[in-house]
TrEMBL record:
It catalyses: a 5'-end NAD(+)-phospho-ribonucleoside in mRNA + H2O = a 5'-end phospho-adenosine-phospho-ribonucleoside in mRNA + beta-nicotinamide D-ribonucleotide + 2 H(+). Signal peptide: none annotated. The gene is nudC. Transmembrane segments: none annotated. This is NAD(+) diphosphatase. PROSITE patterns: NUDIX, NUDIX_BOX. The keyword Chloroplast does not apply. Residues 149-273 form the Nudix hydrolase domain. Its cofactor is Zn(2+); Mg(2+).
Length: 284
């Protein structure tokens, strides 16, 4: 099984510095400190790795997020005023090239910067908020409410029946690609319940015996993908065409061929997506 994309980060997130404004300012002023180079949220590569540069001498703590520390060197990202929009072909190519730990650093930076750009006002009173805790929160000066970056849990799952896996296709997918079905958890719902609900809503499949496989951060914009496999009661499909363009049952041999790129009747998600890992785990 391949290493899960966007995991394996090497930076120490340095939680004590988040609660130490003076220490955070000193880290930002450290001559060795490094700033992540981004171009409209896209990583600027340096020899196949993330690009880093020196911190401006006039940099202010309020404009920066402490990503973490590695080998005693603090690493930062600069806040931007605009939220992230989509993924370019160049970004997809960069994600394929990045090492696991590098991709994890990028995922954290992209998610938290995008959160800041989208949450500049207090959800309680509407006043403008300001960053605090080394960029890992926003504080409302009017009502005192503290806001923190959110992570949205998403279940992504395969239903299996008689040695076959259920895969679906959305219209936005590249031609021929199929993937595991997925959906957001709702309030008051367990992971197992969300898996069962989403499979029934999207494909009309009743399932039982849900088992967890793995999880992965997904920074588009900020989700936690929770991969599962469930046993289908039967293989009858009733597709919700507002969610899926098509759904098919595929054998392990077909999944193995698709993963190997051996001319299967369908294509699989990229290796950095947890759907790829889920298919690998199921096809063993």
């Amino acid at each position: 099984m391949t290493t899960l994309g966007f995991t394996g980060g090497r930076l120490d997130r340095a939680d004590p510095l988040r609660h130490d404004p003076a220490g955070f300012a000193a880290a930002l002023a450290d001559p060795a400190a490094r700033l992540l180079v981004l171009d409209d949220y896209q990583p600027v590569m340096d020899g196949g790795r993330l690009g880093w540069t020196a911190i401006d001498v006039d940099a202010t703590p309020e404009d920066h997020v402490l990503l973490g520390i590695e080998d005693g060197v603090p690493h930062f990202a600069r806040l931007t005023g605009e939220p992230a929009v989509g993924r370019s072909f160049e970004m997809i190519a960069a994600l394929h090239a990045l090492e696991a730990g590098e991709a994890a650093t990028y995922a954290a930076a992209r998610s938290v910067l995008d959160w800041h750009a989208r949450h500049g006002f207090c959800a309680k009173c509407g006043a403008a908020t300001a960053p605090f805790r080394a960029g890992w929160g926003r504080h409302c000066p009017v009502c005192g409410t503290e806001h923190f970056p959110r992570v949205d849990p998403v279940v992504i799952m395969i239903a299996e029946h008689d040695g076959r896996a259920l895969l679906g296709r959305q219209p936005a997918f590249p031609p021929g690609r199929y993937s595991a079905l997925a959906g957001f958890l709702e309030p008051g719902e367990s992971i197992e319940e969300a898996v069962a609900r989403e499979l029934f809503e999207e494909a009309g499949v009743r399932v039982r015996h849900v088992r967890y496989i793995a999880s992965q951060p997904w920074p588009f914009p900020s989700s936690l993908m929770i991969a599962c496999v469930a046993e289908a009661v039967d293989d009858r499909l009733t597709i919700d065409t507002t969610e899926l363009e098509d759904a098919i049952w595929v054998s392990r041999d077909e999944v193995r061929a698709a993963l190997a790129g051996d001319g299967s009747r369908f294509g699989v998600p990229p290796s950095y997506a947890i759907a790829h890992t889920l298919l690998e785990a199921w096809a063993k």
